[in-house]
Amino acid sequence: MRPSPARLLNILVPVKRAVDYAVKIRVNPQQTGIDTNVKHSMNPFDEIAVEEAVRLREKLKSSIESIKLVSIGPSKCSETLRTGLAMGADSAIHIETPDSAPAPEPLGVAKALRQIIAKQEGGIDIVILGKQAIDDDAGQTGQMLAGLLGWSQATFASKVDIDVEKKVATVLREIDGGSEEIRCRLPVIITTDLRWALAELSRSEPRYASLPNIMKAKKKPIEKLTPEQLGVDLTPRLQTIKVSEPPKRVGGAKVENVDQLIEKLKEAGFTAA
């Protein structure tokens, strides 16, 4: 008997709509958070994740069956998903929340992603997402999702190679002392570091969505779901009491010698130990 052909791999890429990285952040007048009435775009680390998912398919060719995006948030998240579809993803899922609803916390996001993965008929083999979002900087969703699923995880990835036959991912990841290489069995959760996109000069940035691909993306399917349909409660567990801007920096001054420096330090309230 001939062995049955190996099942093709499916990739899921969660993406977040966040305040654009180039926008100067300001606290809203109520001091309950930042002013969100500004330009939004895909979280840069998630943009790297989409790009790397597309590059994995280009590298592994026929071994990747599909790349699916998922995003949680208000109606405008569909624009973020369309951007990812124009970059090369095949389809998307939008877990839509009311425009006035607060942003879900990492644990709620991880629980929603777990439900999405469970509903995929073809199964999910690789989840690639940004190591953190630039708005809350939590950096927890990938690790929580791996814990909920009991899957392998490789965080802060700067390079990934997939052995399709052995179902093993070899990941080079950033650590404080430099980098380390680990091997993970599929299915696996991978979070992207900035260095992954900067590994080579020729691939220093995620690709721009061309006009033809933008037009094609409009025809790609986006499935709409609600947290209630997934049986997930996205109500935040944490309460923000107050948000305020840091004190404005005061200009420095030059001194002529050490004696003047000591006098200035004493005037500022500093004393010798």
UniProtKB/TrEMBL annotation:
CDD domains: ETF_beta (cd01714)
Source organism superkingdom: Eukaryota
Primary location group: mitochondrion
Electron transfer flavoprotein alpha/beta-subunit N-terminal domain boundaries: 32-234
Location relative to the cell: Mitochondrion matrix
Cofactor(s) this protein requires: AMP; FAD
MF terms in GO: electron transfer activity
Coiled coil location: none
Signal peptide: none
Keywords for the protein's UniProt record, in alphabetical order: Electron transport, Mitochondrion, Transport
GO biological process: amino acid catabolic process; fatty acid beta-oxidation using acyl-CoA dehydrogenase
GO cellular component labels: mitochondrial matrix
Pfam family, one: ETF
The record's free-text note on cofactor binding: Binds 1 AMP per subunit.
Entry similarity comment: Belongs to the ETF beta-subunit/FixA family.
Subunit structure comment from the entry: Heterodimer of an alpha and a beta subunit.
Its job: The electron transfer flavoprotein serves as a specific electron acceptor for several dehydrogenases, including five acyl-CoA dehydrogenases, glutaryl-CoA and sarcosine dehydrogenase. It transfers the electrons to the main mitochondrial respiratory chain via ETF-ubiquinone oxidoreductase (ETF dehydrogenase).
Protein name: Probable electron transfer flavoprotein subunit beta
